Description:
The complex is a heterodimer.
Chain A: E1 5-7, E2 10-13, E3 19-24, E4 29-37, E5 44-49, E6 55-58, E7 61-65, E8 71-76, E9 85-93, E10 101-102, E11 106-110
Parallel strand pairs in A: 2-11
Antiparallel strand pairs in A: 1-3, 3-8, 4-5, 4-9, 6-7, 7-8, 9-10, 9-11
Chain B: E1 5-7, E2 10-13, E3 19-24, E4 31-37, E5 44-50, E6 53-56, E7 65-68, E8 75-79, E9 88-95, E10 104-105, E11 109-113
Parallel strand pairs in B: 2-11
Antiparallel strand pairs in B: 1-3, 3-8, 4-5, 4-9, 5-6, 7-8, 9-10, 9-11
Amino acid sequence: GQQLNQSPQSxxxxxxxxxxxxCTSSSIFNTWLWYKQEPGEGPVLLIALYKAGELTSNGRxxxxxxxxxxxxxxxxxxxxxxxxxxxxxxGFKMDSNYQLIWGAxxxxxxxx
Amino acid sequence: EAGVAQSPRYKIIEKRxxxxxxxxxxxxxxxxxxxxxxxxxxxxxxxxxQNNGVVDDSQLPKDRFxxxxxxxxxxxLKIQPAKLEDSAVYLCASSNPTAYNEQFFGPGTRLTVL
Lengths: 112, 114
């Protein structure tokens, strides 16, 4: 079953707004990944994080590896219509480097 | 650089029929993964290959699912016989041995079992 709690489940936002979402776990992770999936496509890797406290940006996206190693955050600044999609967090636990653990996704919807 | 290729993109079959999916990973990626993604959920790993050897198939329903990667490049996932609950998107991903944490996905095959 799911070992990552991703929230919120969905978000309705106005164009231009900033967006925040997060992933938490009771386990320690050594890698956090953020993916975006659009309808009919596979997930696309946005940002990869490898160290506690690491803050990494990719354009308007910024992600952070939590200092407790049990959480990660993704922020999107000044959202635009093409940001619509489902954002997944995923990670590798400290005791297992082989299987990527996935959150259930955050669905981003732009209000018309 | 070409991405992960998958075919077919869509497949509709009746229960108890068989179906096969094909994947060609990014050139040079030794690790290949097959995932099942049910609507509203994150991907679930079915099987992971390193070259032509199986690294993890603990979540593969082996009574009906099989996968092979005979020459260590492209791979085939088969379901026989299919059940209604197999309706899902089947995603193939690959990763570079020097950056194994970063998996790159194909567009997926959407399977509908009637």
